[in-house]
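Exercise (ungraded).
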Amino acid sequence: MATTGGGAARPSGSGPDLSGPVLAAAAIFLAGLVCLPIGWIAAFAFSDRGGAPTLGNFVQLAEDPTLSEPLLTTLALSCSVAVAAALAAAPLAWIVARTDMPGRRIARILMTASFVTPPFLGAIAWEILAAPNSGILNRMWRDLSGAADPLFDIYSFGGLVFVITCYTAPYVFVVLANALDRIPADLEDAAGILGAPRWRIVLGITLPLALPALLAGVAVAFLQAMTLFGSPAILAIPAGFHTITTKIYSLFQFPPKPQVAAAAALPLLLVTIALLWLQSRILGRRGYAVIAGKGAEPRPVRLGAWRWPAFALVAAALALPLFLPYAALLKAAFSTLPSAPFDPANLTLAHFAFVFLEFSQTQRAFSNTFVLALATATAGTALALVVAYLVARRTDLAGRSLEFLAMAPIAVPGIVLGVGLFLAYTRGPVVLYGTLWILLLAFLTIELPAAFQQLRASFRGLHPELEEASRILGAGRIETLRRITAPLLRSGVIAGWCLIFVGTVRELSAAVMLSSSATKVLSVVIFDLNESGNLGAIAVIGVTMLVVTFAVVAIANWAGSARGGPRVQPA
Amino acid sequence: MKTTMIAALAAATLAAGAASAQDATYAITPELEAAARREGKLVYYTSIDVKVAEDLAKAFERRFPGIKVHVERNGAERQFSKIGQEYASRIFNVDTVNSSDAAHFVYWKREGWLAPALPEEVKRLYPAGSFDPEGFHAPMRASMSVIAYNTTLVQAADAPRGFRDLLDPKWRGKLVKAHPGYSGTILTATFQIGRDVGWDFLEKLAGQQVMQVQSSTEPPRKVVAGERPVMVDGNEYNVFLEQARGAPIAIVYPAEGTPLIIGPSGVMKNARNPNAARLFHAWSFSLEAQQLAVDAGGLRSLHPGVKEPAGRKPMSEIKLMKDDPVAVDKEVEQIKARYLRHFRT
């Protein structure tokens, strides 16, 4: 296979061009990451308990109401969340991106920060807030209104939609706000000059231009709601219903039915692939026309008297995923009864004493979690870097195939991947179950696409001319990478590393399938504690976990920007 | 030649088996202690409330410094699945195990996963018939699954007296119960209630908008928090612990009988820390450990020397349902399937 760059003209001191073999190795590794677990799922889905081929699992899936009902529930849930997230995110994104609302910068940062909150922790916090009888908000409502009925029952289908929306709407918000930033002002100005009123400009110009981004965000909200495990496990079971993810998990109870579980996982995979394909079609057709044209900077809309009502709306929206849940967790961490009205007599440090002095899983779970997060972030960034480099510098079929493989894991939901890896590595020849390696593989697979996207974007902003200049001046490929390319990519690398790190710490759906007793991570420990109702201990572990996460991310950013001078200037 | 070798092997295995059955009884000796100290740690899988389990572990660590107990707490049924998965992958992490579903020991013994280990104190003092004569398991704890109610939300006169009372429309939306797919206590209790009160009761109960939680440790917490005023099932010992904190919760021993939960312990044959496991196992049946489990853990004990704290109704005065682990072992799949059909989760 021919490689780029003339071999004969290569200056002395540079090694042989390794891009061909490296590309092949990367492609094989990436293909293995995705194909192996999926292959096992397919094999199990089409076999009976004895291993003979059958379609019986799918017949059971359709006919057994304890299996078909969760499928329908999940469909309804995902649709509801997608609509709710769009309705919540669209006005917020417009206000923050396109108006002169006070505090819009900080609002944007906070909205992005609510990403970091693991959805399962948010769900537990909302139990403390809105359990129908003991929930803090419902108690306050009863005291204020004298009503007997709760304001809001979190243990219900609506409650589950609400909590999942709280943690997916920010995603739609970010996608949409970024798109609104890029919509040039001239189109809106033209409409304004022609006498269109403000509302017609928003509905007739801004909204259609932002529509691809909105649809893309909605598709992701749908997928997240469909594949989420923690929130339904925490809120749906008490309400008396299953979603497909909690059902898949329960199929591994004794006696385990992995064949049926695999069959139930396949629809998730197919819907995900279909939606991602649709999303790329939508974005591919309409998104770029706007992004390509660099028109006038968008001017913020003057809200006038509406500035402060808009501010209040955004603050209230931020309270739902951020302020209220964190307040509830902090209160639970320090009080004897998490739901009781605040009373200094109920303050206690007992939960901290239990978690850090008595609970024998604390130390191991913290070390497992952060060892895995550091390893996944480092290995994942390195892999994403190599792949993004190859993809950026090769536009041939090999490069495009590699790009597809690096993005493919995005189509595999965490619980599906968990089931696949469980089936692949619990029996011979290679048994990885019970080791941290199987978790590393799972997290690497799940987090790779995000880091790859980040780094691909960084490479796109980096013209090959700089590297070529360095090569012409006599530097080898490696030296060029080290002295030219790497410094220019630093901020992208750090962002990718942090993305993986945060994503790994908050992962539950694959971890719950794959961790054994000795390899438990914090998310699984929290999940276990929730099943026995130890809210105080959960609050302490959850808050500590978030503090450590933020600290690591801050250190990574500080170290990245402190070392080696300015970021964008070549040395 | 091949056949003679197999015969010799078989004879050796038989002899070893016979010897171990004979020698299953053991005491805590300085040799055992020293061997356990060399191992330095043990892994204890249990389904007891996590705080109670850690309290026991810390008491053991104080009694035998230098031997660390790693507690792995899960609902008994979840724990059973986990051990099954780990053993299928040849992961021998667990050294000694305690479960609130006695049927698990029927299964593990049949699978040959347990080591014979009969503490001398158990053989000498515990009621005959309560422990496995071959020493594969013995009752480390006993408790009951009880009805309980929040005393600030329900007047004693209005409280239910038995299971059938819970079908009264006034309890609709006011009940909480734990899950037999997660909790061994609840699986055992569901079997006994189905047998003695009838599955029609459980079917009708499912129409009462019952809040479904997982662990049998949780319903008492939900009642104390006021999330639901009455619990259908849950650990008696967690109610005792809540009462000791002054929480407003009272127990009802149902008129139809109270499900009795025996929680046996055993040592795994493939334990990586066999001596530490045997030491912990033997110690956990001692008067010291049993009294601690009763006083600080709210549990019941089969050790005749244990003194019941004042204020707890003695077991002898409670109408108990009969436990039957052999039947539970046979019917477990049906129990779970029926429960799923009625309660949908």
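Further reading is listed at the end of the chapter. For now, observe: DSSP finds 23 helices and no strands in chain A. Chain A touches chain B through 46 residues (CB under 8 Å).
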